Each structure stands twice: as structure tokens, then as C-alpha cells.
Amino acid sequence: MGNLLKYLLLACLIVGLPAMARAADTKIGVVSAEEIMSSAESGKKALAGLKATFEAKQQDLKRQNDDFKRMEDDYRKKSVTLSADAKAKMQNELEVKARKMMEDQQGMAQKMDQEQARVMGPLLTILQQVVSDYAKKNGYSIMLDKRTLIYSAPAVDITADIAKEFEAAAKKGGK
Fold first, then answer.
1. Residue 118's domain spans which residues?
2. Mean pLDDT by 10-residue block, N- to C-terminus, for the chain (175 residues)?
3. Which of 22, 55, 119, 134 is deepest in the core (most CB within 10 A)?
4. pTM of this structure
């Protein structure tokens, strides 16, 4: 039984050697797409546009939230002295306001997601093409986004190189 196990392990090792040799030749690169988008001129411009588009709506939602909190505080203070009808009316007003606030927040989040996809989508497509071309040109087998990794050696981080190529490609693509 012991010899059979040894032979099986030896067979697995022999079969796996070519794969291990190929793995040793695997070149891996790490890129921070988020860093590129936030530092590249085209990414900055797109993010600033998104922020400006939704800043007023966010302020409106904040005002709604503040009003709701004031109403809630007012209800708590007055609830002891209010009649049952007045109490029920205030509770109903709070529920209506809370529901509207949630609907507005969900609607805004959905619009923000759609607008972000519309604005950032073309830039992400350009970035994906730049990364793919860079990988092919420089012999990379695998390219990973830094955000998904727990650790990577600084030597495999090629964000700066990709950022330069992305900026050039985005300027061409933007014209």
C-alpha cells in the first residue's frame, strides 16, 4: 500500500512538471484601475462631471433627511401631550415622509449608477484595451486589479506605465 502511494505521488509530480514549468514562466502584472481613473485627466474630468451632476440632488436629499429628523424630534417631544388623533396624524406624516425619502434616495442611487456607467463605461473600455495591449506587448500572462488582492509585490505593480498609456489612448479616443 505504501509503495502504491509513492508511485501515485511520483506520477502526479511527473505529470505536473510541465505545468509547473509553464507556471514559472507566467508573468503577472498588477494595476490599480481606480488609481488610474482618479489621476488621469480624462478620469478626473468624468468624475468631476458626475459629482457636479448630482451635487444639488444630494443637497436636496440632505435637506429632506434633516427635515425628517426635525419632524421626528418634534413628534417625540409632543407625543406625550398629543391626542390620539393628532398622534396618529403625525405618525402618518412621518411614514409618508420616510417612504418618499427612501424612494428619492433609491431613485437617485439608480440614476447615479446609470450616469456613472454612461460616463465611465467608455473610459473603462479604453483602459481594458490598453491593459490588454500592454500585456501582449510585454509578455504578461495575467493582469490583476490591485483592489482585489490582499498583497502583491511592488515590483509587479505596473499602474504608472498603464496610466501613461491610458492617458494617451483616452486623448485619442476622446477626440
1. 2-174
2. 46 48 75 91 88 87 92 88 89 92 92 90 93 95 92 93 92 69
3. 134
4. 0.64
